[in-house]
Amino acid sequence: AVLAHVTLCYDYDWTGADALYRRALSMDHTSAAARQLYPLYFLTSIGRVGDALEFLDRARDDLPDVASLSVYYAMCCVFGRRFDRALQEANFIVEDQPSLVQGQWVRGMALEGLGDYAGAVTCFELGVAMTGRSSLFLSQLGRARFCANFRSAVTKVDPPSTTVQKFSPRSAIMSRHSIGCIARTGSAIRT
Questions:
Q1: Following CA atoms 26, 31, 37, 39 in sequence, which dihedral angle do they give, to the nearest 10 degrees?
Q2: Closest Cα partner for 36 from 68, 4, 65?
Q3: What digits encode the pLDDT tens for the residues 74-130?
């Protein structure tokens, strides 16, 4: 499974990675690593989110004691932009396994995807505290705080035409990021 992951992430050999993942799964169908990496990094990446979630559901049935399978399920939902479902999974993880820091991470990502930046900030702050200031959580926290603080202050949308007001050249980078935070990527690119 690790060789398949390396083939995918470093060689960008999607066909080879698929074959290696399948081989790893056929050799050890109970491997939690293979059953997590394949659906998240391969199936979800190629847009087969439904297949990834079905795969993880079967894995959770077979390995009910592996909490990380639910984390990967929620991550597939986040990356597949199924934020409501991701939040349901993340809430279950946080309630069932409060010390599993990945539950806070994926919950924060789901809340951010739903536009609840204050909730995301709270999750990422908990993650920062739980991990002793992990760089992953610090970067997530910084982005969520930026989006929470600047979403309404930096951009003003004109309701009748839904156009974004122009900014000075000095604020071009800031406006691109803040527009991106509110999922107006087309506007962010044109700014």
A1: 60
A2: 68
A3: 999 999 999 999 999 999 999 999 999 999 999 999 999 999 999 999 999 999 999
- 3-state SS class at 73: helix
Integer angstrom CA distances of residue 100 from 37, 67, 71, 105, 153: 18, 9, 9, 9, 35
DSSP state of 42: I
User: How many CB atoms sit inside 10 A of residue 96's CB?
Assistant: 11
pTM exceeds 0.85 for this model: no
Do the Cβ atoms of 82 and 110 come closer than 8 Å?
no
Q: Enumerate residues 6+ apart whose C-beta is below 8 A from 143.
A: 112, 181
